[in-house]
Amino acid sequence: MNVHESEKLAGILKNRGYAPAENSQQADIIVFNTCCIRDTAEQKILGNIGAVKKQKKLNPELIIAVVGCMSQQKGAKELLQQKFPYIDIVLGSSNLHELSSAIDKILLKRHFFSNVDDNERPEIIENTPVYRTSGTNAWVNIMYGCNNYCSYCVVPYVRGRERSRQPEAVLDEIKTLIDGGYKEITLLGQNVDSYCALSDNGWNFARLLENIAKIDAKFRLRFMSSHPKDFNKDIVDIIRTAPNICNNIHLPVQSGSDRILKIMNRKYTAEHYLSLISYIKTLPDVGITTDMMVGFPTETDEDFELSLSLLKEVRFSNAYTFVYSPRKGTVAADMPQLSADIKKQRITRLVALQNAISAEISQEYQGKNFEILVEDKNAKYDGVLCGRTESGRLVNFQGDAGLIGQFVNVEIKKTKAASLWGEIYVGK
Question: Is the pTM for the entire model greater than 0.70?
Answer without folding.
Answer: yes
